[in-house]
Amino acid sequence: MRTLGARIKEERELHGWTQIYMAKKIDATPAMLSHYERDFRDPDTDMLVKIADLLEVTTDYLLGRTNYRNTEEYKRTLDFAADWTDDEKTIATATVQAFRQIKNK
């Protein structure tokens, strides 16, 4: 699982931003941001929210609680399966559970 710091760094790089640029945007020093990205220090709640808002991702994504970067991505996934039959949903769920068991071995 990617760490909080790894996710912050990955998202910053996806935006094409330097640490200096992003640090200014969140009212932090480049050293603080570097500490977050290297998991030397965790941002406090207010800072985590600033980072998530700037990066346009959810705090749950940054914390590793979900792999959906934002709510729009989650909604698109739900829309994808909206017209599935109950049998198709059951098969999909069983497939995902089997994959998770294999992955966790």
Q: What do these coordinates show?
A:
- The chain has 105 residues and is mainly alpha-helical.
- The protein has helices at 4-15, 19-25, 30-37, 45-55, 59-62, 71-80, 86-103.
- Helix content is 67%, strand content 0%.
- α2 (19-25) packs across α3.
- Gyration radius (Cα, Å) is 17 Å
Q: Indicate the mean pLDDT.
A: 90
Shape: elongated
Number of strands: 0
**Strand/helix succession:** HHHHHHH
Percent in strands: under 5%
Helix content: 55-70%
Structural class by helix and strand composition: mainly alpha
Q: What's the SSE blueprint?
A:
Elements: H1 4-15, H2 19-25, H3 30-37, H4 45-55, H5 59-62, H6 71-80, H7 86-103
Descriptors:
105 residues; mainly alpha; 0% strand
What's the short story on this structure?
By secondary structure, the chain is mostly helical. Helix content is 67%, strand content 0%.
